[in-house]
Predict the structure.
Amino acid sequence: MRPNNWENESYNNIKEDNRPYMDPYVKNLIEKSFLTIERLRRGQRKTYFTGNWQKDVMSCFPGRQSAKIFKKMRVFLDREDLVFAQKKLTNLDGYEYIVMRK
């Protein structure tokens, strides 16, 4: 669940040294999504991320880190025992990212 003051820590906020603010809530969700995928049992289906994956990764992780995250996700996407899907959210701008282990 998002903290109550998440509006104050949005993507549009800039730190004192003009670096973009990295949303700690979204950053934590991205990091936990890999654990969710790894711990998935056979026949289980789970939502590993809700939002806009590419935009959120690019916003929360600078250059090389985001490239590493996309590379790590590519390893999961190439696995034969995992099936990935995304569902467009009707009331929000974003998607529900779902993974299922065969």
Q: What stands out?
A: The two ends are 29 Å apart (CA to CA). Residues 11-101 form one domain.
